[in-house]
Design brief:
By secondary structure, the chain is an alpha+beta fold. 28% of the residues lie in helices and 21% in strands. The longest helix has 14 residues, at 3-16. The N and C termini lie far apart (80 Å).
Amino acid sequence: MNWITNYVRPRINSMLGRREVPENLWIKCPETGEMVFHKDLEDNKWVIPASGFHMKMPAKARLKDLFDGNEYEALPQPKVAQDPLKFRDSKRYADRLKDSRLKTEQEDTILAGLGTVEGLSSSLSSMSSTSSAARSAWLPARRS
């Protein structure tokens, strides 16, 4: 073996230390294969600048984008049973829920909020989905 790989490289690595680099800094366009920096993609509302391909937009980002001033009040979500149907598959449903909650950092797929859209009091909901693009619904708030 080589003395550089056996002695010098480990010494240099121990002096410099390993830096933790997030894996999601660059996002690949599924259409063209172009690599886009995640901040540029977020600033462009999840649309690839060169190809115009629309990426999936997280529910929180969609609500922030739709409400005036990027501000809204999140509506409380009702508690749901973990597995009311006792669903069976190759993977336990409870495990699927746990993985999804870790991935989206949300308790539920649908996120709802109150705020204003172009000055009009509104309630909006947005759905994050791993299988399809996030969808949103717009309903004007009732005036009492």
